[in-house]
Amino acid sequence: MTTWKLCVLIVLAALLCDAKAGADAPLERKNEIKLFVTAANTEQALEALGLDERKSKKRTVCFFDTGERLLSANHLILRARQSKKGRGDSTVKLRAHEDDTALSEAERAIQPEQDWTNENEPTHSRSLGNKSLAKGMVTEVISGRLPASALFNQQQHDLVAGRMIDFDWSGLRLYGPVDVMVWKQQWKLDGFPEDVTVELWQMQKEGKLLDILEVSTKVRADTDEQARELAHRFFAAARAAGLGEPTGQTKTQMTLDFFQPGRVTR
Fold first, then answer.
1. What are the residues whose beta carbons fall under 8 Å from the beta carbon of 143, sequence distance 6 or more?
2. Terminus-to-terminus CA distance in the chain, angstroms?
3. Per residue in 55-67, pLDDT tens?
4. pLDDT above 90 (res 216)
5. What stretch of H or E contains 228?
6. Span 78-90, pLDDT tens digits
7. Nearest-CA neighbor of 129 among 183, 88, 173?
8. Rg of the chain's alpha carbons, rounded to an integer?
9. Environment class of residue 199 by beta-carbon count within 10 Å: exposed (0-12), middle (13-18) or buried (19+)?
10. How many helices (H) does the chain have, and how many strands (E)?
11. How far, CA to CA in Å, does 22 sit from each of 15, 18, 27, 97, 142?
12. Fewest Cβ atoms nearer than 10 Å: which of 21, 157, 167, 244?
């Protein structure tokens, strides 16, 4: 064998090894830490954060499920959002632990996420997003002029079908809409180095009103131990600012329950 052929084979072998190592490497996790501020602490939170409505971005958020909450029962969340300018996006989220043996190969290929709503253990999920919704499309669905299924692309439909064979998309009902104000990268909590995002969700149904205030941050962490330490620091800083204790509650759970009282999100 000539020298140049041997060199080519060595290079190809090295590339194959690198590719295999990359395929076997675990996907990097996203980490987000979230604090739901209870009604008792909302006034203190608003004062501590100094929120100015004029600096917020307006958004409309909707969730979709069947009347029996079958998607929630199968650990699936369907959400759509639209900005004030009319641009929209949709998300299908699967809540499942990374070690769940029921995860399919397609599900494992989706980047894992960890949401820290308490100081001890995160919830695990994987999401598929569609950021190319046409202007005003979410409004069309809210008004009933378009079916909810139109907000989700084929990959998102396939993710649902992987958990719920022959799912009837025509059976979806609207949980919302929710008026949202978002303040991004404008504040830091004393004692925590990263910027925080603040969202105020305002819900109304049949004369009932509910406001949800959430303070959150996205962090980079190489290990679960680092992520847990950052969660401890975040919640300690929030506690010192008078924002209250972590409750483990999420906006998704509270929104679904508000628009269909009496049912429990599994």
1. none
2. 64
3. 889 999 999 999 9
4. yes
5. helix 224-240
6. 999 999 888 899 9
7. 88
8. 22
9. buried
10. 8, 9
11. 11, 6, 9, 22, 43
12. 21
In this structure, what are the phi and psi dihedrals at residue 139, rounded to the nearest 5 degrees? -60, -40
Q: For the segment 146-186, what is each residue's pLDDT rounded down to a tens digit?
A: 999 999 999 999 999 998 999 999 999 999 999 999 998 66
Answer for the pair 94, 74: CB distance below 8 angstroms, yes or no: no
Q: What is the pTM of this model?
A: 0.83
- CB 123, CB 188: distance < 8 Å: no
Quick one: residue 234, left, alpha or beta (phi over 0 = left, psi -120 to 50 = alpha)? alpha
Strands 76-83 and 30-37, by their bridges, are: unpaired
Q: Locate the DSSP E strands across 112-246.
A: 112-116, 123-133, 173-188, 195-205, 208-219
Domain boundaries, given as residue ranges, for the chain: 31-259
Could you confirm whether domain 31-259 is CATH 3.90.960.10? Answer: no
Average pLDDT over residues 231-235: 95
Distance CA 31, CA 115 (A): 6
Q: How do residues 183-198 score in pLDDT, each as one tens digit?
A: 986 678 888 988 899 9
